[in-house]
Structure formats: C-alpha cells, structure tokens
Design a protein that fits this description.
Structural class: alpha/beta
Radius of gyration: 18 Å
Strand order of the largest sheet: 2-1-10-9
Strand content: 15-25%
Number of helices: 9
Number of strands: 12
Oligomer: single chain
Helix content: 25-40%
Order of helices and strands: HEEHEHEHEEHEEHEHEHEHE
Length: 264
C-alpha cells in the first residue's frame, strides 16, 4: 500500500529541480503533472510516488553520485523513476526496452549502474558503479545518454546536474512556459530531447502529456489527439514536422487552436 506523504513538511533534498517540483506541488497539489492515456498524476501524487521510489532506491544501496539504469517504457512510472533517481542525488541511464537486446546489455555493461529500475521495480546490481566518463565528471551526473554507435561503439555522454538545471531555467524563460501549459512528451526517453519536454514543464507547474505509439501513425490523427488533449507546446523532430506541414498544406489536417508554440 502506498504511504501518504505530507508534501508541506516532507524534507526537500538539495537540487534545484526537485525543490521547484515540490514547490509546485505545495502551490497546486491537485493540478495535473503527468498525463498518460486515461489517467494522470497530480503534483501531490507525483511527489508522493517519487518519495516512495526514492526510498526503494536508497534501500537498494543507491546514493549520491551513483548511476541507475531505467529500463522502462514511456509511462507515468518512467517519469517518477527519473525524478526519484535525481531525488537521491544519482544520475539515470535511460535504456529503451525496445532496443535490441545486445544494445541494452552493452549499455548496462558500460554504465555499470548501482541499480536498475524496470516495470517490476528496483533491482540492485553487483557491479562497480559508474562509467569512466561519469567518474571523470566527479559523479555529479543528472543522466547519461548513449550515442547511436553508427560510427563505432556507443559512448555514454554525461550531462551534469548543474547543466540540466541551467538548461531548464533557460528553456522556461525562452519558451515562456507557465502552469497553464500542456507540453507533449514526444521523444524517446533515451534521447535527451525528452529532457526538454519533461523537466522545464514540471518545474513551472505545467502538465506533461505522454504520447502513445498510435498517436503518431497519421498526421491528422496526431493533430486531432493534440487538440483533444489541449496541447499548447509541441517539441518535434524536424522530419515529423515536415510530415505535419505537408498534411496541413493538403488540407488533410488542422493545427489545433490550443497550440501556441512549436519547437523544431
């Protein structure tokens, strides 16, 4: 059974991102934070679930400076897992479960995470934690993403917490994000375009709306779903944007009136 946590008195760990999200939960606890399918998480629920997952990570031996593998598909639980890893001062390593098994195993072997989060929960590993790049960065990683490996062996790219926090602050200002926004989460969680879609929104009280695979099967369906979901901000790959524009030019689809910003 989930344990109720009073976010008004729950201790807030260092970390400007987590502090900002907790502040939003105190300000608007019933507002939608993460929306996926027929359900959503309010800000109060999000903070409570993150605290629970953070406790599980600590019990598995994860502490500040470690890495944690996220072998979990796009979902509300995935967002909770990301935040829980940051909550305990560790860095997350996203591993798309749809990747070929060999790539998943390569990433795990190279990153050497202290624990791995899957849909089944948190599992501690018996590896020596941390990539060489992570150790060289002083263990202050927010996340590590791996290159495609198209020109050789995939490499882990370390993004420090300080860089993530600075980026989020700049994105909130540049995109004029507010608590009234609904930002579509489009990118794979294994690409750091997903970072731009998730963290700036949550730190200003906006709602993050997770897409499903069916949603992008046709441009007209995609735009209809965006309208129904009240999406205000789209952050899209250039190629997909071209597909949408072509459909708009052919009058096969209409850009939703709710969309105020498209980031390409």
């Amino acid at each position: 059974m989930s344990q109720a946590i009073d976010i008004r008195t729950s201790p807030v760990e260092e970390g400007p991102l987590w502090q900002a999200i907790v502040a939003q939960a105190r300000r608007q606890p019933a507002a939608a934070a993460v929306i996926h399918g027929a359900g959503d998480l309010t800000y109060a629920e999000l903070v409570a679930r993150v605290e629970e997952r953070a406790t599980e990570l600590t019990a598995a031996g994860v502490s500040g400076g470690d890495l944690v593998g996220l072998r979990i598909p796009r979902s509300r639980d995935a967002v909770v897992a990301m935040l829980a890893v940051l909550r305990v001062g560790a860095g997350y390593v996203p591993i798309d479960p749809a990747y070929p098994q060999a790539r998943q195993e390569l990433i795990l072997a190279d990153a050497r995470p202290r624990a791995v989060i899957t849909t089944d929960g948190v599992t501690a590993t018996d590896t020596v934690a941390g990539t060489e790049a992570h150790e060289a960065a002083g263990g202050g990683a927010a996340y590590v993403v791996y290159t495609s490996g198209s020109t050789g062996r995939p490499k882990g790219v370390v993004v420090p917490m300080s860089a993530l926090a600075a980026f989020c602050a700049a994105a909130r200002q540049r995109y004029e994000l507010t608590a009234a926004d609904r930002v579509l989460q489009f990118a794979s969680l294994s690409f750091d375009a997903s970072v731009e879609e998730i963290f700036p929104a949550l730190t200003c009280g906006a709602a993050v709306v997770l897409r499903d695979d069916d949603m992008i099967s046709r441009p007209d369906l995609f735009l209809d779903r965006c309208a129904g979901l009240g999406i205000t901000v789209l952050d899209l790959p250039t190629a997909y944007w071209h597909d949408l524009v072509a459909a708009l030019d052919r009058a096969e689809a209409t850009l939703p009136a709710t969309v105020r910003l498209a980031i390409i």
